[in-house]
Amino acid sequence: MIDTAPAVVEPWPLDTDAPWRVLAWPDWRPGSSNLSWIFRELGAALAEMNACLCLRHDSEIDGPIDAAKARLEKVAGKLPSGVDLAVLLVEGPLSDEDWERLGAAVHAKISRSQSPSLPRRQRIDRVRALEIRTAADVPRLLAERPQITPLDRFQRSFADVPGWFQMPAICIWDSLLAFQSRSMVRGNFLEIGVWMGRSALLSTLHSSDDEECVFVDPLPMDEARAKLATIRDSGLHFLLTTSRRLLPEMLPASVPPSYRWIHIDGEHTGIAVEHDLALASSLLGERGIIVVDDFFSPAYPQIAFSVIDHLRAHPKSLMMFLCGFNKAYLCHPSDGRWLLEYVASELSDDLVARGVPPFTLFKTTDPLDLNCFGIDQRRMAGAFRGPDNGHDLLLY
Fold first, then answer.
1. Tens digit of pLDDT for each residue in 135-148?
2. Are 18 and 52 in contact (CB under 8 A)?
3. Residue 361 gets which letter from DSSP?
């Protein structure tokens, strides 16, 4: 069932009797697969919940409405027999006030499979609604008592916070932090380099009231502080300084070492990274994880060199168990087996459940050479790739 609604419908919120309303603004261009993906991956699940798929269309941006309707009919026609999905086209220009009313009228949003830089995605990200990324999310989130995770809260409230922290790195973080929590790992959090707080917000959403969260940046953190305060009203510490001026004893709960999550994203010089790694190593608690930003980034080769130099100089203090999507993940060697086992046996499933586009998990050499997994978007390889002489081997 497909209908068209003007931009502002009275009686507001939307002209549909469906119990659940899900908003998306697909890329209507003929070459885009975005609309097809929504129907293929989510259509049956939405129909099962009697949800109405509310599709935004603006003729000035998306082209003629008749062409959009024709394409929509074609895509909807590919749904399996017996699947009846209610679809409402929300057409015409919308003011900021209209968007606020629209956002208040829907229960969830869909933005996956669109680039974060697209205006459509940016507009949907500003809608304060839960995000559906997989078919399994539909019954979980469209419920009287939705099962909301830290990632759900992040995507609902902070998806539009500026920053370079994007999927799938967000999902890797969320998976590792959730794994720590269900393994009963307790500890504090440290963020070196905050800016608008995009990554700090996700890690703080995983923190408990008795865990301290420390944020270090030489520039004012007013915007990040305001957003972080909506998550917690205590246990937040803001240090306006460069990390190179820090000593462990200047941080709360530094003795004994008690930090379970440390993100290094500060001054991008090799000297600063070396200092930050030494500081992080001294603070890292049992089963803690250090994340280094811009690892293997061509813009900052000094970061990769500094990380590798530090690991070689201190093999009994830190090891790298995973790298990819612009980040390196380090731990104490005594925790390496625990984390390698998780990456090998659970990480892929956790990322798929979070809706990460196809990726490959690499383990291409013997542990005696380097015991570290790599992860990247899927190209020629499959979901897993072992050494060149045995792609199906898993050695760790």
1. 999 999 999 999 99
2. yes
3. E
Tokens 């370079």 -> residue = 164
pLDDT at 378: 94
With tokens 């001026």, the residue in question is 245
Question: How distant is the alpha carbon of residue 191 from its chain centre?
Answer: 17
Q: Does 2-148 match 169-385 in CATH topology?
A: yes
Q: With 70 as the cut, is the pLDDT of residue 12 above it? A: no
List, for residues 288-315, the tens digit of each pLDDT value.
999 999 999 999 999 999 999 999 999 9
Tokens for 316? 């009994």
Residue 286 to residue 338: CA distance in whole angstroms = 11
Query: What is the spatial distance between Cα 254 and Cα 284, in angstroms, rounded to a whole number?
Result: 9
Q: What fold is seen in the domain 169-385?
A: Rossmann fold (3.40.50)
Distance CA(296)–CA(51), nearest Å, equals 43
Class assignment of domain 2-148? alpha beta
Residues of 59-76 as b/e, b for ≥16 C-beta within 10 angstroms? eeebeebeebeebbeebb
Does residue 190 contact residue 251 with C-beta atoms inside 8 Å? yes
Question: How many residues can be counted in the chain?
Answer: 396
Summary count for the chain: helices (H), strands (E): 15, 16
Stronger pLDDT, 116 or 176, i.e. the higher one? 176
